[in-house]
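Q: Convert this sequence to C-alpha cells.
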Amino acid sequence: MAIPVIDFSELNGEKRAETLAQIANGCEEWGFFQLVNHGISEELLERVKKVSSECFKLEREENFKNSTLVKKLNELAETKSGKLENVDWEDVVTLLDNNEWPAQTPGFKEIMAEYRSELKKLAAKVMEVMDENLGLPKGYIKKAFDGEGDDAFFGTKVSHYPPCSHPELVNGLRAHTDAGGVILLYQDDVVGGLQILKDGKWIDVQPLPNSIVINTGDQVEVLSNGRYKSVWHRVLAAPEGNRRSIASFYNPSLKATISPAPQLVENVKEEVDQVYPKFVFGDYMSVYAEQKFLPKEPRFQAVGAM
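A:
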C-alpha cells in the first residue's frame, strides 16, 4: 500500500475533475498525499537539497555527534537498560521570516528564502483546491488562517536524522499529528523512514524524487468539521543514511479564531453536529505544546473548555 501520488499540473487540463477527486480522496481517506509537477522547479529543489546537506555538514553535524542525546544513547546501549523516551533522533534548524538563520553555508539564506517563497504560493493553491472540494468560497481556509489583520504563520523546519547505531533504542521522531494547517514536505529521495498510521497499520511514505508531500493538520480537521482528518505519523531512526526532511507549515495566525465552516455544519445530522469547538489558535498551541505526542481529541476538549 502506497500513499497517493497526484499530478498537480493536471488541474489545468482536461483531467481537472479527476484530479480534484484524487486530492479529495487524499485528504479524506489518507491525510497525506504526494504532489508531482507542482510548479516548483527541479533545479531549485536540487539547490535546496545541496545547500541543506552542506549546512548540516558545515554547521550542525559536529554538535550533533557531541550532543547529550548521542551520549545517552551510547550509555543505554552499554547498560541495556531500556529505550530512550521523550526525545527524537533529529537535528532541527527552524526558518522563520524574523529569526536568525545559519550564516556560514554559502547560498543557504538566498536559496531557502527563494524556496519558501515558491512553497508559500503552492500552499495557497493547495488550500484553494481544498476550498473547492469542500464547497467553500475560494480563499476561505486562507482567510480563516489570517485572523484579524494578522498574516498566517509560515515556518520551515530543516531536519536531519543522522545514522543511528542503535535505532531500536530511540525514535527518529515520535508519533504525532501536526497542530497547524497545511504541511508541505520536501523529503529525502533516497533515505526513507517517514510512516503514517492508516487503518491501524504503519505505512511507509515512499521516497519520490522532486515530489512535495502534503499533509493536513489539526486546524484543517476542525475547519472541515472532520471531513479531512489530521493523521498520526512518525520517523524511524535508521543505522545508515542521513535522512533530510524539509517541512514547511502554513498555520493560522496565533490570534486567528478557528471553528468548523458554517457551510459544513448546516448539513450534518444533529447527533454529530458541530463536534469541534471554536477556539483561538494561540490557545490551542499552548495545549499542544504540552500534549503533542498524545491523542488529539483531549486537546480539542481542553481548548474548547478555555
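The chain is about 40% helix and 20% strand.
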